[in-house]
Amino acid sequence: MSVGVFRFKDDNISAQSVRIFFASVASEEFYNRVWTKALLETNIQIFKEGSEFKPTQINDVLEELHRLIWWCMNNLEKGSSDHTYMNNHLCFLIQSISEEASKGDEIFYIF
Question: Does this model's pTM top 0.90?
Fold first, then answer.
């Protein structure tokens, strides 16, 4: 299992939903081991598992993702597999969510 960011056509998240966006956050194991600590220590309010956000909240979400990069740089050993994994995912999330936010009004879901 893994944690990701999703968008669905017309915000329909039923079994028949059409996914229009997906970006991986982390494997479930990595999320539980590393991300939960980072989220707590950086006081993340929006970008966490079980949450959702609207395109109008994109600036707040991007600010939270930048706080997580700061946490990664200051708490994980540079060059370690954990550091590389988290940093690469965060950079990808910032880019892909930024680009996707202007493509419609559908909500982003994190699960």
Answer: yes
